[in-house]
Amino acid sequence: MSRSSTPHHEPRRRLALRLAVPAAGLLLLTGCFSGSTGSGGEVASVTETDATEGTGARLRIAHLQPPRSGFSPLTDDAFKMARWSNVETLVTLDDDGDAQPLLATAWSQVDPTTWRFEVRQGVRFHDGQPMTAAAVVGSLAAAAAAAPPPRILDGVDLSAEVDPSAPEGAVLVRTAQPDPLLPQRLSSPQLAVMSPAAYSTDAAGKTVVDPVRHATGPFVLTAVNGTSSATLDRFEGYWGEPAAAAGIDAAFVPDGTARAAALRTGTADVVEAVPAGQASLLDPALLHEVKMPRTNTLYLNTSRGAFADPAVRAAAREAVDARTIVDTVYEGRADVAQGLLGPALPWTADRPRRTPSVAPAGAADGKTITIGTFTDRAELPEVAVQLQAQLEAAGFTVRQDVRDYAQIEADALAGRFDAFVLSRATVLDSGDPVAYLASDFSCGGSFNLSQFCDAGVDAAIAEAAATPAGPERRAAVLEAERLVLEADAAVPLLHERVLQGEQPGVTGAVRDPRERALVTTGTRVGAAAA
After folding, report:
1. Alpha-carbon torsion 397, 402, 408, 413, what sign?
2. Cis amide bond preceding 148, omega within 30
3. Could you tell me the pTM of the whole model?
4. Coil, strand or helix at 454
5. Domain 13-83+217-269+503-529, what architecture?
6. Could you say which of 3.10.105.10, 3.40.50.2000, 3.30.450.20, 3.20.20.450 is the CATH number of the domain covering 291-497?
7. CA–CA gap between residue 254 and residue 256 (Å, rounded)
8. Burial of 514 (0-12, 13-18, 19+ CB in 10 A)
9. Which CATH superfamily is domain 91-201 in?
10. Is 390 in contact with 420 (CB distance < 8 Å)?
11. N or C: more exposed end of the chain, with fewer CB within 10 A?
12. How many Cβ atoms are within 10 Å of 100's Cβ, its own excluded?
């Protein structure tokens, strides 16, 4: 944690820390890209020529976070597989968040709670089996029955069946309540269509999903090396345009300094989330800034501890100086938050005026709080340091608990911290922020770090969820946001701009604000791409 406590007025020490990448870490990172697993499971070397020339070259990617759930598509790991063009869903989203065909070629609403999706013909899974309407139903049923359910299905009672009028070509998807955004919901990578052979049941009766060779995308996942790396090869039987790259060698590199070093030394072709603090050490031509629908937020535990008192929450909100955090930790490469939803969603500029409560004098005095956060995002420990100083200046006594995300998530979800600093994608799943609001701030939300439950907020979220896409839905979303913020369940700090690193020979890498696309069939590396 020494990096996180480095004062920003000590540039020499900070520079030394940025450059001090352990030799062992560099060797490990290099090793992650040193070879690939062939389609038969054998290890095939990647020569220097292979890595730099020709349209068939393999892509080397340094990712931010390791898999958390063995690449189960029912979890957030599905988004990594989507970024590799490994898993596919019935629909995809365009830049405006509107649903477009993918494994479904068309859809229509049969009645208020039933939608009909026509299944694309001629698709094969990576294990060679044909994708049928029954296989689509099986994947959706597995997701609906999962415990806990995929985040995109929070509060949604979903079922699916083969359309009896077209048993080979269509499925009917039903929800207990009308769901005007069902097509967008089905774009979530957590609802990817997998081969029936991917699913099994463990001794406890829980569904287990094996992702290796069981999806439909242009790249087939052939090997997973724990939380260190993964290997994918081009799928020659892909139903669409074949991939330009021969495969993908992915390494999981939580340390931001090591990711930056991989970009600087050419060890990786594409690097996720280069820390803002490393930008000055890199060639600007290698960095591409993407304004993200991702908010860095201080969640306050509303159910127990000091922040169960609304006056103390107000005192914390008044103590926070987000501008200082943006200018120091992010070196200006972020936007000070005006709400939970940021400028990547332009319509949020029309949000209603809020009337925040005023903390009584001395509300923070004598209050001891613990702030939790994680090291996987290099800036977050430094944000916690800044927050500690700001809150202590207001009268709080502050402790920190900083760990790897995998080690801290369970405690955070259980409400064992007074406050938690999180970088959160707000339209990750359906391209619409209602799912985020329901997950994070409804009474039954599965990611409710604030332990927040308010009938008025639940009603506002429900109204937004029931409103068709368009201006009225957006207004309902902003009303729900207003109620959450007036309750001080969370203090939004800033909206991130992610720095994606790309070597000069890389073309076609997607700079996706939703963080669900990175490599497509057109992505390539090498002399032929220049």
Report:
1. positive
2. yes
3. 0.71
4. coil
5. 3-Layer(aba) Sandwich (3.40)
6. 3.10.105.10
7. 6
8. buried
9. Dipeptide-binding Protein; Domain 1 (3.90.76.10)
10. no
11. C
12. 11
Report yes or no: 215 and 493 within 8 Å, Cβ to Cβ.
no
Amino acid 300: pLDDT: 98
pLDDT tens per residue across span 178-192: 888 899 999 999 999
Residue 377, amino acid: R
Residues of the chain with pLDDT under 50: 1-28, 35-55, 528-530
Where does 320-470 have alpha helices with state H? 322-328, 379-393, 405-413, 434-441, 455-466
Instruction: Retrieve residue 177's tokens.
Output: 């309540």
List C-alpha distances in Å: 6 to 14, 130, 304, 382: 7, 55, 32, 8
Question: Which structure tokens are listed for 431?
Answer: 């391209």
What is the pLDDT at residue 530?
38
Tokens at 275, concatenated: 């820390």
State residue 529's pLDDT score.
41
- Residue 37, SS3 per DSSP: strand
Q: What burial letters (b/e) apply to 427-451, b meaning 16+ CB within 10 Å?
A: bbbbbbbbbbbbbbbbeebbbbbbb
For residue 115, give both structure tokens: 């939608």
Identity of the residue numbered 138: G
